[in-house]
Amino acid sequence: MNATLPPAGADAPAASLPDSAVFSWGGYFEALAWLCFALALFCLILWVIKRRGGVPFSGASSGARIESRLALGPKKWLLAVHFQGRRLLLGLTDQNITLLCELPPEEAAPSRTKDSPTFAEAMDKEADNPGGRT
Q1: How many other β-carbons are positioned within 10 Å of the β-carbon of residue 67?
Q2: How many C-beta neighbours within 10 Å does residue 81 have?
């Protein structure tokens, strides 16, 4: 606790600073470069995760899948979805999701022949003539 300072004078030793305490702009620029590199790497990782569809959570069901999709307009789709053993027809817009109906199971669904229309053709026909009215 009795620290004394050396007397100020000509015979006092000159205070020498360690090299790490000397001010240098190079150290700041190097730290800034590493910070920019880490930020760019973080943004790249987020972009890759977003492009791959996100990170699956441990509680997420692996049994959910989209069987078919039909675009009806900008940000509007009809989706045939298989989820927890059920087949669902969903209407999807940019603001909501609506369950339109539950579809029959795949094994009970009629197989498509050459003469039967595709889903898109049936939807186009229904759009032209709603409810079968003439």
Answers
A1: 14
A2: 19
> Residue 101: what are its φ and ψ, rounded to 5°?
-170, 170
Instruction: Supply 74's token pair.
Output: 């900008």
Task: Give tens-digit pLDDT for 41-59.
Answer: 999 999 888 887 766 655 5
State the amino acid at position 22 in one-letter form: V
CB 66 within 8 A of CB 80: yes
Computed from CA positions of residues 89, 116, 72, 127, in that sequence, does the dihedral angle turn out positive or negative?
A: negative
Helix (H) or strand (E) holding 3: none
Strands (E), 40-124: 65-73, 76-83, 86-93, 97-103
pTM: 0.38
| Cα 68 from Cα 79, distance rounded (Å) | 6
Give 131's DSSP letter: G
Tell me if 68 sits within 8 A of 119, measured CB to CB: yes
pLDDT digits (tens, 9 = 90+) for 2-18: 556 555 555 555 556 56
